[in-house]
Amino acid sequence: MPSNSAEPAGPRNDELLAAALRGEREAWNSLVERFNRLVWAVARSFEMPASDTADLSQTVWLRLVEHLDQIKEPERLGSWLATTTRREGIKLLRKRSQEIPDEHRQEQSDQGMDGPEEHALVADEYAQLRDALAKLPERCRRLLRVIAASDEANYSEVAAALDMPMGSIGPTRSRCLERLRIQYTQSS
């Protein structure tokens, strides 16, 4: 008689986690096989380059290795992995949003912005913007960084990345941008 259970075939998560903790390679391989699609789906939702998506996926599996003995609810391992992927994805987007792409440096150079005065002005503007951003509530900083880090910010993906209702992204974004504008103009 077929089972209607949502439980995956094979060993339970708690059995696999215990075996992986003992160093059993097959248990680890089974965990990766069972949850790899989930990790990749959440990682791809950030719409990063393939290399960053692969790095994010590897980071998540590394976090599982680091916390293998701390998983208290093995039946919720999928949720733990999805949440960890979102958090690590946000960290990666923040890191990337603070980097100035080489093509932007080239555009500045092409526009004659390669003298020390121009660099000082740009650095000052970036510093003012960073200061204004730092004065915003954490929720606004996270939202604006995730949106800024994506070339084509899709609200459903932003909502998933930040664990926010999709309907609140637009209004929250507008309020946050207004707060940022006020902070920036006050510091100028």
UniProtKB/TrEMBL annotation:
The domain of life for this entry's organism is Bacteria
Chain positions covered by the region annotation Disordered: 95-114
- UniProt-listed Pfam families: Sigma70_r2
**Keywords, alphabetical:** DNA-binding, Sigma factor, Transcription, Transcription regulation
| GO MF, one example | DNA binding
Keyword presence, Ion transport: no
Q: Which family does it belong to?
A: Belongs to the sigma-70 factor family. ECF subfamily.
Q: What is this protein called?
A: Sigma-70 family RNA polymerase sigma factor
Q: What is the organism field in this record?
A: Actinospica acidithermotolerans
